């Protein structure tokens, strides 16, 4: 049945190849992606006794951490919090060397987890999901992969990452450049030497800002092409001392609880005061203390920094002065200090000497708004005013965020509707985990969930366990098909938008709202209601028999009947964001 349907609906030559090479393999769940998300989903689903197949396009585990190997790459969430919480033994035994781990150390951790929990045997590498089609009568997903393998699974979990589809500008003459072009998110596995080289970095988001000081120390000359100056706070990185390690591990559960119950999953609770209630002197003291200690937590020193422009201005001005104070050349200060958007309305960076790098004689800044890039030549980049001779050009130009990797494969739901068609005007989900018309499909940290506004590790673990428990519930109650209702997803999208409107996020163009890709629908995608509030909404949904999800004893197309209330819509009346920041998204007072 599945084969007949697939052959009927998608390109015959593809299926001929697939069918010739291998028979369909049956599993309970296909998980797409072997990054932190896919591996955690594998663990949670195995706990429910499910036969899981993880498929991974690249040759090894790690997802973005496998690919983003650029110099200086490290996490801006503290290592102890950017790690799995499901195994106390793992927590106790793994030793982090730095407060913010480097990419190689994170990759070592991922590989350790994979070996320790014997995950590799359930992962198929060099296998990209090209198509997935729902068999509406059988209630199963048929999945076709680049290596010719074909799978049939009851559930499909998309753990493809929100920042995993690298975005490269197409500049005139790009094919003429005779040197090396590298994207920060597709970093070569072999060592890249910058010694004696003339290097360009295009892009000054987190990746560009992290690599600039490191490459500046190695290269003969570095030119940074900046379009939008970005806010950044110091990383305050340091080695972890044995005493600190002991202290964290003695109280690890408490630390996790704090992270789960904080707005961003970083463990910081927002200040209870408005920035505008504090005197200028008090503010200066609070900001100064946070500056050298809190990293990304700086944005939560007062609860209204992301809610009120005037409050935000106080933080933004403090940061501008800090940035300006370390840049020696006045004309560079003017260009590097961010002024055109509110602090943290776009993702700020956490850096280690980015602005100071411009004090070096071998580092140059090109403001592409002032002098746009005209073309790449055989030997470099020509702007409107000069040619920069280069050996290496690095695109640190970011990603097609949130939906890029979800929309690459052809995913076909009911009645031949593709996910691309369904989301043509922007992604529509219920709770960020599923979408109507695509039964038995779960999205991990998808649009409509806190995802990129949270410590993503917290969100990954929360959702993986939630899916796994939902599947357990379905098994217990004889449910064969689960599907988001249209009413629920409409209510959730309205709620996500209402919440976003309470914040300053909508005042800036950013990848949060699709501005990073020309022609992409301008829709605000992450959920701003906070990790704690979101967690409570997930629980409430489950406690109410998975309201907003129709659960059927058989697939709808085979005459299935709804077993739960199905049509119920999560009670998500918008509340003020200040309450959300302390975690009351579901209306429960603390
Ligand atoms: P990004 O934040 O999207 O930054 C892309 C940069 O490229 C921006 O400065 C952008 O300018 C510029 N750009 C894009 N197209 C351009 C063009 N045609 N010409 C000139 N400039 C262009 O991407 P990212 O730095 O890779 O970071 C993405 C996200 O990954 C971060 O926000 C963060 O969530 C995550 N990340 C985290 C870490 C960490 O944990 N420390 C490290 C790296 C990345 P505009 O701003 O003008 O668009």
Instruction: Write down the overall mean pLDDT.
Output: 92
Overall shape: it is: globular
Report the sheet with the most strands, covering strand number, pairing sense and barrel closure: 8 strands, mixed
Number of helices: 18
Bound molecules: NADP nicotinamide-adenine-dinucleotide phosphate
The helix-and-strand class reads: alpha/beta
Describe this structure in words.
- There is one protein chain.
- The strands form 5 sheets. Strands 1, 2, 3, 4, 5, 6, 17 and 18 form an 8-stranded mixed β-sheet that branches. Strands 7-16-8-9-12 form a 5-stranded parallel β-sheet, covered by helices on one side.
- Mean pLDDT is 92; it is low at 568-590.
- Helix 3 packs parallel to helix 15.
- The relative contact order is 0.13.
- The chain is α/β, with parallel strands linked by helices.
- It is 31% helix and 16% strand.
- It contains 18 helices and 20 strands.
- The protein has helices at 2-9, 12-21, 36-47, 64-67, 88-93, 103-116, 206-218, 242-250, 252-260, 280-291, 309-326, 330-336, 354-357, 419-422, 456-476, 486-501, 531-543, 577-581, and strands at residues 24-32, 52-55, 123-124, 129-135, 140-145, 150-158, 180-183, 198-202, 221-226, 232-234, 349-351, 363-367, 373-377, 380-383, 387-389, 392-395, 410-412, 441-443, 481-484, 549-552.
- A hairpin with a 3-residue loop joins strand 14 (380-383) and strand 15 (387-389).
- It has a domain at 2-61 and 119-165 and 401-584: 3-Layer(bba) Sandwich (FAD/NAD(P)-binding domain), CATH 3.50.50.
- It is globular, with a radius of gyration of 24 Å.
- Bound molecules: NADP nicotinamide-adenine-dinucleotide phosphate.
- Residues 74-76, 163, 169, 184, 202-208, 210, 225, 227-228, 347, 368, 396-399, 452, 511, 516 line the site of NADP nicotinamide-adenine-dinucleotide phosphate (NAP).
- The site of NADP nicotinamide-adenine-dinucleotide phosphate has 26 residues, from helix 7.
């Amino acid at each position: 049945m599945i084969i007949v349907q697939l052959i009927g609906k998608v390109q015959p030559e593809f299926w001929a190849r697939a069918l010739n090479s291998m028979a369909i393999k049956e599993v309970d769940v296909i998980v797409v992606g072997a990054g932190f998300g896919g591996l955690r989903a594998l663990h949670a689903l195995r706990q429910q006794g499910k036969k899981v197949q993880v498929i991974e396009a690249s040759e090894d585990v790690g997802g973005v951490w496998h690919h983003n190997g650029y110099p200086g790459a490290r996490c801006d969430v503290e290592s102890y919090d950017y790690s799995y919480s499901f195994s106390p033994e793992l927590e106790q035994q793994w030793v982090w060397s730095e407060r913010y781990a480097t990419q190689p150390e994170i990759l070592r951790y991922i590989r350790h987890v994979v070996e320790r929990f014997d995950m590799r045997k359930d992962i198929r590498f060099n296998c990209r999901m090209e198509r997935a089609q729902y068999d509406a009568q059988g209630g199963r997903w048929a999945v076709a992969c680049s290596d010719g393998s074909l799978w049939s699974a009851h559930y499909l979990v998309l753990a493809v990452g929100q920042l995993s589809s690298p975005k490269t500008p197409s500049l005139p003459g790009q094919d003429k450049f005779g040197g090396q072009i590298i994207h920060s998110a597709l970093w070569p596995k072999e060592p890249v030497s910058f010694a004696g080289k003339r290097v360009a970095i295009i892009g000054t988001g987190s990746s560009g800002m992290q690599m600039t000081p490191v490459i500046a120390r190695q290269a003969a000359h570095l030119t940074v092409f900046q379009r939008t100056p970005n806010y950044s706070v110091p990383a305050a990185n340091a080695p972890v001392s044995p005493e600190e390690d002991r202290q964290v591990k003695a109280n690890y559960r408490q630390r996790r609880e704090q992270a789960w119950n904080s707005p961003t999953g970083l463990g910081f609770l927002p200040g209870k005061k408005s920035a505008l209630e504090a005197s200028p002197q008090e503010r200066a003291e609070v900001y100064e203390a946070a500056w050298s200690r809190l990293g990304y937590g700086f944005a939560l020193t007062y609860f209204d920094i992301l809610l009120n422009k005037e409050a935000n201005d106080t933080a933004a001005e403090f940061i501008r002065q800090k940035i300006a104070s370390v840049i020696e050349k006045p004309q560079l200060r003017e260009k590097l200090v961010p002024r055109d958007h509110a602090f943290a309305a776009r993702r700020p960076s956490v850096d280690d000497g980015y602005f100071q790098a411009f004090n070096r004689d071998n580092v140059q800044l090109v403001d592409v708004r002032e002098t746009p890039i005209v073309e790449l030549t055989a030997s470099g980049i020509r702007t409107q005013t000069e040619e920069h001779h280069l050996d290496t050009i690095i695109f640190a130009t970011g990603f097609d965020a949130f939906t890029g990797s979800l929309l690459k494969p052809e995913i076909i739901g009911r009645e031949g509707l593709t996910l691309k068609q369904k989301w043509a005007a922007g992604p529509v989900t219920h709770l960020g985990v599923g979408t109507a018309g695509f039964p038995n499909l779960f999205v991990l940290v998808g649009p409509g969930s806190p995802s990129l506004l949270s410590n993503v590790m917290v969100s990954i673990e929360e959702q993986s366990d939630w899916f796994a428990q939902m599947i357990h519930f379905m098994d217990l109650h004889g449910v064969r098909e689960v599907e988001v209702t249209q009413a629920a997803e409409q209510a959730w999208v309205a709620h996500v938008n209402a919440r976003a409107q309470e914040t300053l996020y909508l005042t800036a163009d950013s990848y949060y709202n699709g501005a990073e890709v020309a022609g992409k629908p301008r829709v605000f995608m992450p959920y701003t209601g906070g990790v704690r509030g979101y967690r409570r909404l997930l629980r409430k949904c489950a406690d109410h028999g998975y309201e907003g999800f129709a659960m059927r004893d058989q697939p709808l197309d085979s005459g299935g009947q709804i077993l739960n209330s199905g049509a119920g819509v999560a009670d998500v009346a918008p509340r003020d964001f200040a309450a959300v920041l302390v975690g009351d998204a579901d209306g429960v007072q603390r």
